[in-house]
Design goal:
InterPro entries: Kelch-typ_b-propeller, KLHDC10
Keywords: Kelch repeat, Repeat
Organism: Cardiocondyla obscurior
Strand order of the largest sheet: 10-14-13-12-11
Distance between the termini: 30 Å
Largest sheet: 5 strands, mixed
Structural class: mainly beta
Protein name: Kelch domain-containing protein 10 homolog
Length: 393
């Protein structure tokens, strides 16, 4: 019997004729109401004799990095590799990525060896056809780095932090999407004691006024969550915010390479951010935490535990409130390996119509093989029929 269960992870088994993506880490994902999109990634353990890859000329030119953009339909659970790799950069690990409409914006990243070749170019990819192009840019470009994080606000794209592989920053630059011009917002120089330490593989939250920096670290250090650096866009100043622990005074352990998503409650207007997994140099985490940005209260989602400890994965949230996690480095029976698993958990209670749609697909899994006309004739609302990727057939 179908039961809607929030905060419980479900594993998604890939369907369809196309092979799924290989296991990877250092990639980035994004979600809309219909698909999950995965860009780039790294896996040095794929054998040259792998039958799935031995005829893939793109892989042989880019290995151990994946010059790939994949689309995973959330209803049919079918993977589709999109064309357009000829215009992708060679820096394919630890990029920063954000989805705006049907435009996937990819910034920064590194090739291999890590840090030897870094990027400061912005790419835009059309998720409908995979077409990718460089965005022309002038102004004061940031230094080429990887492990940055992005926020999009008004017509600006903000990038925070990152590393060259040797030096770590928490500088802020922004790109005017209308004019194609980079501007310096804040360079951390030590003039203010609230300036955060340089870092990479952190995550950002944003409430419309302040950018919150969550965790991250260096190759030898991970930063914590009891105090959070926040940058006020109105005053152009850093602040250090003290957060409040869970009922047992706990906050998340320091970590880097974790996942992060955020959502805003429609009724209360409260924005919350949810972090998952991560790594501190010794320990791989499987816990999931939520931070209320209004009260700065941490809550450990004790019933919401990742299937196994994971880091260098990527997380994204659908507009309906379902968090998806793909790939990463997992720890199973004290062994470390990369994965290509897709898991999801509901973080909010969606509309009843969405729950009904989930139940319908549970009881009638063959719906994914029906034509749009047949689905509409059955009486299924158009907005749900449009969740399928029929052009992948």
């Amino acid at each position: 019997m179908y039961t809607f269960k929030p905060f419980v992870f479900t594993k998604h088994k890939a369907n369809g004729p196309e092979r799924p993506p290989k296991a990877r880490s250092g990639h980035r994902i994004a979600c809309d109401h219909r698909n999950l999109y995965s860009y780039g990634g790294f896996n040095p353990c794929v054998a040259d004799t792998d039958p799935d890859m031995r005829d893939d000329q793109t892989w042989f030119a880019s290995k151990p990095l994946f010059k790939e953009l994949w689309r995973f339909n959330l209803v049919s659970e079918r993977w589709k590799r999109l064309p357009g790799q000829e215009n992708m950069p060679n820096e394919l690990a630890s990029n920063a990525m954000i989805l705006c409409g049907n435009a996937l914006m990819v910034y920064g990243g590194t090739g291999v060896p890590f840090g030897e070749s870094c990027s400061n170019q912005l790419y835009v990819c059309n998720v409908d056809d995979g077409a990718m192009k460089v965005v022309p840019a002038t102004g004061e470009l940031p230094e080429p780095q990887y492990g940055q994080a992005l926020v999009c606000h008004d017509s600006y794209l903000y990038t925070v932090g990152g590393t060259t592989g040797y030096e770590y920053t928490c500088d802020i630059h922004r790109f005017d999407l209308r004019k194609g011009v980079w501007e310096i917002v804040y360079i951390c120089s030590g003039r203010d004691e609230s300036e955060p330490r340089g870092r990479y593989r952190h995550e950002l939250a944003f409430d419309g006024k302040m950018i919150y920096v969550l965790g991250g670290g260096t190759s030898t250090e991970s930063y914590g969550f009891a105090e959070i650096p926040a940058f006020d866009l109105k005053t152009n100043k850093w602040r250090t915010l003290n957060t409040h622990g869970d009922t047992d005074t706990m906050v998340p352990a320091p970590r880097r390479c974790h996942g992060s998503v955020q959502y805003t409650d429609e009724k209360s207007g409260v924005t919350s951010v949810v972090i998952s997994g991560g790594y501190n140099g010794d320990w791989v985490f499987s816990d999931v935490w939520r931070l209320n940005l209004n009260t700065l209260q941490w809550t450990r989602l004790r019933e919401c535990i990742l299937p196994c400890p994971v880091y260098f994965h990527s997380a994204a949230l659908t507009p309906e409130g379902r968090m998806y996690i793909f790939g990463g480095i997992v720890k199973i029976n004290n062994k470390i390996q990369r994965t290509n698993a897709v898991h999801s958990a509901w973080l909010t209670i969606p509309k009843l119509s969405e729950i009904c749609w989930q139940a319908l697909n549970y009881y009638f899994p063959h719906l994914k093989d029906s034509s749009p006309d047949k689905l509409l004739h059955m009486g299924i609302p158009l907005k749900f029929v449009q969740k399928f990727d029929f052009y992948d057939w």
